[in-house]
Structure formats: structure tokens, C-alpha cells
Amino acid sequence: KENDFKGNYHNNIGPRASSSLYFFLQKIPKVELHAHLNGCIRPGTLFALAEEKCVTLSSHHFQPTKKNDNDQTLIQGDDDEDALLYNVQPRSLQDCFDMFAEIPRCVNDVDSLRRITLEALHDFAAHNVVYLELRTTPKVLNAECDKRTYLETVLGVMNEFEQSYTRSMTCRLIVAIDRSLSEEEACENVDLAIAFRKSTLSADRIVGMDLGGNPTRGDFHCFRPHLERARQAGLRITLHCGEVADCDMTSNITHADETSCSTYSEVQAMLDFHPDRLGHALFVPNTFWSSQERRIPVETCPTSNVMTLELAQHVRGHLMEGLQQHPQLREWLDTQYPLAIGTDDPGVFDTNPTKELWLLCRAFDLNVSIICRLVEQSMEYAFCDEATKRRLQEDIHEEMLLLL
Ligand code: 6MZ
């Protein structure tokens, strides 16, 4: 029974294709290192909140469909794995950021924040995620909820969840900086992360900082001193890096080099900063991948990349064929580059952790032992303390052995 948790929320476990690859992958223990809280919102919840709060959502971006609604009754009879190969709704980078701008109009108080956090945790646990690093940008939601309360709320839900849920999922939080916002905002977020880290109640829970947000806005150089301060305080750093290139991405995806990448100097500065992990890293100079001493682990998010790079646009929306056009994945897999597979924004991209692994297997013809090894190795790149990491690595290894 996959949804034996207490609580009123439905979870999203995807199709029930027994004895299928998908079904096997759903059962393996997983590690999720790249997921944005507000991007995890279930479409059904977004619509419910919009109705409750009388918010009119952009009809172009938010369309309830059978495939991306997480109500179990809609997916129970769905045995067709191959139907998953098509993205029901294309999401360009611009679409995503239009959606991110609308979500906070509905998630605008502590109750709705609690709800989306709890649902996100249930959804990851339903896919047998055993270690989750969720990230979020602290926000002022209303007069009662400042950035501190925002983080306290998310941390509070994590505590409750870990104590009450019957399956164990270790949850950690990464505090994000939105590069489209001011340096002052970034400074506040770093201050908060450091303060929470000093507090005995949340010291272990907040493990790092992320720089994300619309990659076409802002500049890493402004945020660098703030991230450096966070690092000095013991927080680990992950940077969204090289998510967009200068070339015409819709017509010709090529490896970035020094001439094709207008963000080259920013990417270079990010690499020189030597973060603990890189997010996406789609357009990074080729020389970086071949340099053996600088193998910074990459958080890669297959569906998100196919969507934002619009790789499936010319192949009838076929996700697998789109993924085969990914600028780096094949090389990363061939060279066994350190990778962690993430969902990025499961609510926005209509995905889940099982589907990401499944898509990778299908697109690159990987066998299950390779995917299991990939997942197991990705725990090495987690930001939690060493003792927790070792314990989870042992648990994951044992569970994998039982399944394989
Ligand atoms: C960069 C992204 C992102 O923080 O409000 N975010 N940043 N690239 C992406 N690729 C598609 N997906 C999500 O979660 C939503 C926020 O996460 C960042 C954006 O800043 C977005 O507004 P939180 O919980």
C-alpha cells in the first residue's frame, strides 16, 4: 500500500503499471537534492487556493488536465507507461517564470504555505524518497508572516512530518536567493539562514544556500559576497549555473563554448567560486567537464531541461526524444560525472522522482542497476552532516540489494 500516511491530502504516485520499469523505479529508495518548494505545488491545490482566495489565474499557463492533476482517482486506472512520454503542456522558461510569479498570489498566508509544504513532503515520500533537500526563497506573505515566520513554518512542517509519517524520509532545507531580486533581499536571506543555523532547534535542518531565479535576470557577481558569508558560516552552496545560453536554443542546441555563451563570464565566475554543487549546468565551457580535479557534482533535472530548452518541441512533445537532445546528459553518463537527478518543480513540470529516473532509463537505455548506482552515489553529494549521510547510504545500499 503506497499511501498509508495519516492526513487528508492525496498523494501523487503516478501510474500503476504493475511489473513495469516504472513500478520498479517507484520502489527504489531515492535522493532528491533539487526541488523548489513553490514549484512542487499540486495543480489541484493551486486551483483550490485560487478559488478560495478569488484569484484569477492566467488561463494560458494553468490548465487542469487528467495527466497533471494529482487527484488519485484520476490516475488509478492509468496503466499506460508510454503515455508518460509526452509532455501534456509545454513549459518554456518564460512560461515557468510566469507561473512562479502567480503561485505566491495563492500561497499568501501561513495556512497555504503549510499545506503546500506538507503535500510536497507527502508526494516525495510516496515515491520512496528517503532523503530530501527542499529549497525555498523566504518571503513576506502578509502582515503576520515575515521571512522568519515563513522559514519557521516550513521547518515546523518538516519536523511534524518526520515525527508522524510511517515511512522515514530525512528532510533538510536549503535557503534560496532569487537572482531577480535585490542584493538587500539576498543579504536578509543569508542573515536568516545563519541565524537559524545558530539556533539549536534548527541547526541541523538548514544545510545550505542556493542561487536561483530567472537566469536571464540579475548577476552572480552581486550575490557572491553574500554567498561567501554564508559559506564562512558553515552553509553549503549550490548555484543554478549556465541554465541559458546565448545561441538560439530553439533551433540549434550545441555545447557552449567561449563564443556561444554570453553568460560565459558569469559561468566562469561561478565555477571559480567553487560551489559544492551546480544546478543544471547546461551551458558550461567544455574544458570544465574534462578537468579531472574539478568535478563539482551537478543536480540535473531531465524534464525541466527538456521543457525550458524546448527540446521536445520538434519531436511532437516526445519527452524521451527531447531528452536525447540534452546538451550534456549523454556525456555525463558516459564519463560517470557526479550527478544527482532532481525534479526541479514537479507541480509545474508535471513530474515526480520516479518519472525522472524512468525517463533517463528510457532515453539513454540504462539498465536498472546503473540507475540504482546513480541514485546511491548521489547521496554522497548531500549537504547533511556526515553521520546522517553514512547512515542513509547504508540504508539505501541495503534496500537496493533487496530490490535488485
Ligand atoms: C531557476 C528556479 C527554477 O523558492 O518560491 N526556481 N530558478 N531555474 C529554475 N528552472 C526552471 N525553478 C524554480 O520556489 C519557486 C522559485 O524557485 C526558483 C524560482 O525563483 C521560483 O520563483 P520557491 O519555493
Molecular structure report:
The N terminus is likely disordered. Strand 5, helix 9 and strand 6 form a beta-alpha-beta unit. Helix content is 44%, strand content 12%. The chain has an eight-stranded parallel beta sheet. The longest helix has 18 residues. Helix 1 crosses helix 15, helix 5 packs parallel to helix 6 and helix 7 runs parallel beside helix 8. It has 404 residues and is of the alpha/beta class. The chain is built from 17 helices and eight strands. N6-methyladenosine-5'-monophosphate binds next to helix 4, strand 3 and helix 11.
What binds here, in terms of ligands, is: N6-methyladenosine-5'-monophosphate
Shape: globular
Query: What distance separates the N and C termini?
Result: 20 Å
Q: Mean pLDDT, nearest integer?
A: 86
Write out the strand line-up for the largest beta sheet, numbering strands in chain order. Answer: 1-2-3-4-5-6-7-8
Secondary structure elements and pairings:
Layout (H helix, E strand, L loop, with lengths): L20 H7 L2 E7 L6 H10 L19 H4 L17 H14 L3 H17 L2 E8 L10 H18 L5 E9 L4 H16 L7 E7 L7 H13 L3 E6 L22 H10 L3 E4 L5 H5 L7 E3 L1 H7 L10 H5 L5 H6 L4 E3 L4 H4 L3 H12 L3 H11 L7 H18 L1
Summarize this structure briefly.
This protein starts with 20 loop residues before the first helix and ends with a helix. The chain has 404 residues and is an alpha/beta fold. It is built from 17 helices and eight strands.
